[in-house]
Amino acid sequence: MSKLDTRSIEERLEKLEGWEYKDNSIHTSLEFENFKEAFSMMTRIAFEAENQQHHPEWTNVYNTLNISLSTHDAGGVTEKDFKLALAIEKLIDA
Ligand SMILES: C[C@H](O)[C@H](O)[C@H]1CNC2=NC(N)=NC(=O)C2=N1
């Protein structure tokens, strides 16, 4: 999977509300009602990540979740990151 250039990353980001490109990754920040809701969503995302064999870098503090996606093997952002980001958006909207 080859690394996408900045222009194609920005183009794809137009369809992903709340995501931005910085530090060679795409990022989002989510806020939930409480810790249980945040961790429940992390569990759902974890199963999806395992299915895709593509995994987030993330931090959780109480009700907040910060997610960064990049493809380590490619040294940047690839289609794999957008595939996982879209799946995360679907889980959030579900
Ligand atoms: C062999 C295995 O599929 C690879 O190590 C995968 C696992 N999950 C991964 N996740 C992410 N975010 N980037 C990778 O390059 C990556 N590589």
Automatic annotation (TrEMBL):
**What's the protein name?**
Putative pterin-4-alpha-carbinolamine dehydratase
| Organism superkingdom | Bacteria
This protein's record includes keyword Lyase = yes
Q: Which family does it belong to?
A: Belongs to the pterin-4-alpha-carbinolamine dehydratase family.
**InterPro entries in the cross-refs:** PCD_sf, Pterin_deHydtase
Keyword check for Nucleus, yes or no: no
Q: Name its species.
A: Leeuwenhoekiella parthenopeia
- Which keywords appear in this protein's UniProt record, sorted alphabetically? Lyase
> Under which EC number(s) is this enzyme classified?
4.2.1.96
Gene3D superfamilies (UniProt xref): Transcriptional coactivator/pterin dehydratase
Catalytic activities: (4aS,6R)-4a-hydroxy-L-erythro-5,6,7,8-tetrahydrobiopterin = (6R)-L-erythro-6,7-dihydrobiopterin + H2O
One GO MF term attached to the UniProt entry: 4-alpha-hydroxytetrahydrobiopterin dehydratase activity
Secretion signal, residue range per the UniProt entry: none
Entries under PANTHER family matching the protein: PTERIN-4-ALPHA-CARBINOLAMINE DEHYDRATASE
HAMAP family in alphabetical order: Pterin_4_alpha (MF_00434)
